[in-house]
Amino acid sequence: KLFFTDYGNAAKVERCDMDGMNRTWIVDSKIEQPTALALDLINKYVYWLDIYLESVEVVDYQGRRRQTITKGRQIRHLCGLAVFENYLYTINSDNLSILRINRYNGTDVQALARLDNAKEIRVYQKRAQAAVRSHACEADPYGMPGGCTHLCLLSSSYKARTCRCRTGFILGSDGRSCK
Predict the structure, then answer these.
(1) How many other C-beta atoms lie within 10 A of the C-beta of residue 130?
(2) What is the pTM for the complete model shown?
(3) Of 91, 111, 128, which residue constitutes the final position of a domain?
(4) Which residues contact 112 (CB under 8 A, 6 or more apart)?
(5) Are residues 96 and 118 in the same domain?
(6) Residue where a domain stops, chosen among 111, 128, 145
(7) Residue 158: its pLDDT value, please?
(8) What ranges cover the LDL-receptor class B repeats (predicted)?
(9) pLDDT digits (tens, 9 = 90+) for 119-130
(10) Enclosing domain of residue 166
(11) Which residue pairs from 87-91 have beta carbons closer than 8 angstroms and sit at least 24 positions apart in sequence?
(12) Counting CB atoms within 10 angstroms of each CB, which of 4, 82, 104, 166 has the fewest?
């Protein structure tokens, strides 16, 4: 799945399959300007930062069990969001410090370090990397991913795929080749 935020005409948090199909709104109320998103891949939670409402909130992948983690003026200056173990990590754009926030109760906020010009944060940890298994976009005997001549995008499961073409090309009637 692909998760993303939108604060155009109607602010929301959405998800879809990797090929863009099955687009679903998971948060569309009491949300104004979601600017950062982080996923708890193990427990299947979506965290987001709303700088207009000055809050950090969480829902499960279906948009249920919504909770506010923390709220207040300090949120206005945050950018970027990452989750790891018991904490959320973010950057205060006002003083360029990395903050650690307890993700269960919003307390225990600590400044960990200061970075120049940081706008985004990511946590890389081996446990957060999904195990690789065979999938529909693996190279075929001719070296083409999923049998597609240009792009192979996973669909509703790792067993399904959609072929797409680069800009300027049209997908052929076989659903795999680009012309």
Answers:
(1) 7
(2) 0.83
(3) 128
(4) 89, 97, 98, 99, 100
(5) yes
(6) 128
(7) 85
(8) 1-43
(9) 788 888 776 666
(10) 132-178
(11) 88/38, 88/47, 88/56, 89/121, 89/123, 90/36, 90/49, 90/56, 90/121, 91/115, 91/118, 91/119, 91/120, 91/121
(12) 166
CATH number at residue 144: 2.10.25.10
H or E element in which residue 177 lies: none
Q: Left (φ > 0), alpha (ψ -120 to 50) or beta: where does 69 sit?
A: alpha
Q: What is the identity of the amino acid at 69?
A: I
- Classified as helix, coil or strand, 127 is helix
Query: Alpha-carbon distance 110 to 101, whole Å?
Result: 7
Low-confidence ranges of the chain (pLDDT < 50): none
How many domains are contained in the chain?
Answer: 2
Per-residue model confidence (pLDDT) at position 128? 65
Does one domain contain both 114 and 39? Answer: yes
pLDDT at residue 164, rounded to an integer? 95
Residues with Cβ within 8 Å of 137's Cβ and at least 6 positions away in sequence, in order, are: 145, 146, 148, 152, 153, 154, 161
Q: Are residues 109 and 149 in the same domain?
A: no
**DSSP label at 143?**
S
List 15's β-bridge partners, or say none.
3, 24
